[in-house]
Every structure is written in C-alpha cells, then in structure tokens.
Amino acid sequence: MSLPLRLFIGVDHRERAAANVLIDSLVQHSSAPLAITPLLTPQLERQGLHRRPRDPLQSSDFSFTRFLVPHLCGYEGWALFLDCDMLCRGDIAALWDLRDDGCALMCVQHHHVPRETVKFLGEPQSAYARKNWSSLMLFNTPRCRALTPELVNTASGLHLHRFAWLGPDDRIGALPSVWNHLVDVQPPDPAAQLLHWTLGGPWFREQRSAGGPLAAEWFAARDAAQRLYD
User: For the chain, which end, N or C, has fewer CB atoms within 10 Å of the first or last residue's CB respectively?
Assistant: First the structure.
C-alpha cells in the first residue's frame, strides 16, 4: 500500500487565507492521498525547533522554518515543501512522480533577478543567486541531514536559500517550470500547474488584482472552497 504524499506548507500569519485555498486546491486536484502539515512558527518555537530572532530581511514567518522539513521527517523518505502563496491547478502526484533518487533536492531553477526593492505589505525584496528556488523544494530527506535544527537556527539566510549546506551542485535536480510559475514575474503560461504569487497575492486588500485574470481564478478557488461549508 502506498503512503500519503508528505507535503509541508509554510504559513505566514498574514496569509492564512492563501494557505487554506492552496490546501484545498492541492486536495481537489490530487489523484493520491495527501498528508499536509502547515509549518506554523509558534508551534515550532514551542517545540524548541525555531529559536532565532526575526531577521530584518525576512519577508515571511517561514523564511527559515522551511529548512526544518527533513528533520521533521526524521530524515526518512521524500517530502515536498511549498510556500503558502500558491494555487495548484494540476495533480501534485505528477510532481511527486518526478522524484529522482540521484538527487538530494529538486526544485524549479528560476533565473529571477528582482527589479523591485519591496514586495507585499512593504516587505523587503532581496536579490540573490537562486532566488525563489527554495519556494518549492522536493527533499530527499536522508540526503539532507546537514539541515539540523542547530544549522537552521544559526546559518545565514544566504547559506540556507542558496543551498550552500548541500555541497556539489549536481545534488540539485531541476523540476519543470510549470510547477512554480511566478505570477507577474514570468510571462503568462496557460500550462502552469502551480501558480506562485511571490510579489503578493489577491488575498491582500491592496493587491486584489495581482496577476490580472489569475486573481479571478484565485477568488474562484476560494469561493469554491467556502461553498463546502455553506
């Protein structure tokens, strides 16, 4: 019997609506059972797993906690991390099936050089190599043992997000770009399976139209999820 796919979602306290819509979109489109764990900073703090003060360049609650996923899995099996500011259009099991045991980690390898210096709600926009690679990571957790809670709580943001802890670059596998499409950064792609509002999404009052027609798609997904509880 196959086990549920292990998914971890980074949740910012200001983006609970985004996280809820993402979770529903993942469930509704998946052909496989999912085990979804929201990464909530207060819970990880109470467990003693997150101890570092907020960094001035940190734009979300989960900037660092995402790297605790291999530890939370006991360094066994595969796990997928996603930012909460996404919307799933396709079967996440199709992404899961792309796992390559020859890789320690897999991600969409964007070439994103931000022009802006701020993003949603005035949060800082940092430019660095491998920008947005860590927004969706497929971890081969036994090969990510370097990500101990001690390292995650002490290493610099660049060391973590640029995967300096991983070693040689040939341990990083590439995923198709449709699985992390950057809304309002990349040209529209009708084939995109996972939309990512990295600059801020329509759940923020100030960004209701972010993504143009894609904003309407997000609201339609939100309304469909809410109807389940009417």
Answer: N
